[in-house]
Write a structure and sequence with these properties.
The protein is of the alpha/beta class. It has one domain: HUPs (Rossmann fold). The chain is built from 6 helices and 5 strands, in the order βαβααβαβααβ. The protein has a 5-stranded parallel sheet with strand order 3-2-1-4-5. Helix 1 links the parallel strand 1 and strand 2. The longest helix is centred in the middle third of the chain and has 18 residues. The protein is globular, with a radius of gyration of 16 Å.
């Protein structure tokens, strides 16, 4: 039985499925950590797009609100009931942030979805889950959610 697990959340069904699985892998006294790293949206105006800037109305508060929503909705969808969950919100490059949290909290494992919301980008530059599985200081369980159309 694991004493602590870290589950990265991005709002995808794969991440929710990973959270459900992680909650079944530990008892009620173990630490279940969820982490989300809100992605900065791209600007929609021509100048902003050309320099890779965020929208003018993007603020730290809006990023925090988005992260809180992702965590809350993921926990609700995973139907965790009264299970205590430690929520973590960070910013920065997802791979580095997740690995750093795993090291700092000395978790027994990371459970994450095989694909997140940015599937196309992941195919081009390598997915976050793939990089984590090769660099993590602990075991990594990558959860694949079968295609619901099949």
């Amino acid at each position: 039985m694991y004493r602590s697990l870290l589950v990265p959340l991005d709002g995808s069904n794969h991440a929710v499925h990973a959270l459900k699985l992680a909650s079944r892998m530990i008892d009620e006294h173990a630490d279940l950590y969820v982490i989300t790293i809100p992605e900065v949206p791209q600007a929609t105006d021509q100048l902003g797009i050309s320099v890779g800037a965020a929208p003018l109305d993007y603020t730290y508060e809006s990023a925090k609100e988005l992260a809180d929503t992702i965590i809350r909705e993921s926990i609700e969808k995973a139907a965790l009931g009264d299970r205590k969950v430690h929520a973590i919100v960070r910013d920065g490059p997802p791979v580095a942030v997740i690995l750093n949290e795993a090291r700092e909290r000395n978790v027994d494992g990371i459970v994450m979805g095989s694909r997140g919301l940015s599937d196309l980008k992941g195919l081009v530059v390598g997915s976050v889950s793939h990089k984590i599985s090769h660099l993590a200081p602990c075991p990594v369980i990558t959860v694949h959610l079968p295609d619901e159309r099949a």
